[in-house]
Amino acid sequence: xxxxxxxxxxxxxxxxxxxxxxxxxxxxxxxxxxxxxxxxxxxxxxxxxxxxxxxxxxxxxxxxxxxxxxxxxxxxxxxxxxxxxxxxxxxxxxxxxxxxxxxxxxxxxxxxxxxxxxxxxxxxxxxxxxxxxxxxxxxxxxxxxxxxxxxxxxxxxxxxxxxxxxxxxxxxxxxxxxxxxxxxxxxxxxxxxxxxxxxxxxxxxxxxxxxxxxxxxxxxxxxxxxxxxxxxxxxxxxxxxxxxxxxxxxxxxxxxxxxxxxxxxxxxxxxxxxxxxxxxxxxxxxxxxxxxxxxxxxxxxxxxxxxxxxxxxxxxxxxxxxxxxxxxxxxxxxxxxxxxxxxxxxxxxxxxxxxxxxxxxxxxxxxxxxxxxxxxxxxxxxxxxxxxxxxxxxxxxxxxxxxxxxxxxxxxxxxxxxxxxxxxxxxxxxxxxxxxxxxxxxxxxxxxxxxxxx
Length: 454
Description:
By secondary structure, the chain is α+β, with helices and mostly antiparallel strands. Among the domains are: 197-297, Jelly Rolls (Sandwich), CATH 2.60.120.10; 317-453, Jelly Rolls. Helices cover 40% and strands 19% of the residues. α3 (39-51) packs antiparallel against α4 (55-71) and α6 packs across α8. The longest helix has 23 residues, at 419-441. The radius of gyration is 27 Å and the shape is elongated. Mean pLDDT is 74; it is low at 105-176 and 448-454.
């Protein structure tokens, strides 16, 4: 008569909760024999062994689980297990090397003990100036699985002697891209891996609290979390549910602004925490890390802009991507002018990140009248673009900023195929002209934060 696997799982979990670790390990060992492909059971067996003091056997099973996760492209799970191994034995770096060499294969780099170079798709990474391909989960390559998985796992859960060992992968699978990690050189990858922390949270625990300082960012290794914001009157608005593999808190990479929302564990979760200071150190030491972090943060900003800016809202995801590829990114320092009053407008702009002020100068000496303060996602430069007249105001950076610019010539090409943009820009230009006239006429005023006062 087949075993009741569900009852056995419940029994094992109950034994763990009661801290009867030896009995729990026996139950998980039996479950591993019944369901050898379920890596979570092997990890729980290692958890029980570690809690019961069987550190060497626990480390050996963790090692195999981490290798298997890595070979199946489950990098975040592999990293999480790797952190547990290092807690057991800080000198054990074989798993780090395995992960780094496997992930270097994605870009055709062979590092460490990597067995062979993974095949590269036609056109992949052809030229550094090209944006990374946008793919859905359905488009990702299927990881290659070893056929002897059951035999390997059955051998691992049998009691044995000997410390942890590194088992090189039998094949080099095509691994799915993971933001940030995928673009790091092996040495930078290992340095980042060493400095991150593995956190565990139970259902209902807060990972991030709205209003707290942001000094790190997170990657969800397992489980799910809910993101919510509390309004001024105390109402709670749920913004998103994030699943395994999601990044959050990444604005800590860009600024020291307080957290704009709270993140709560919806179930038991494992989360990797990366201090922003570690990344800053890394980018000063390794040029490849700086390029990877820049690419990552820009990609996240672009994703946010595509989702929130009115310019891109009328389009589906694919058309948004095609449109945004026509823009160019520009860094703007504090006090630098993006547009100068009286100068010819050179394109359509979208504020990606930072803070810009729009001021109308009446004379060369004065600071001018504050017309508005632009926020992330705002479009500007459209008035001189449509009327072919000089810019009617200065646009000055009040903080380090990034803007997207669609050159005038490209704008004229784009509106031929996307008339929605011309309609939106024309409507925006008309509304802005009315507001500016009212400000100049004194019927409304603008405060120091750029908000209209009636």
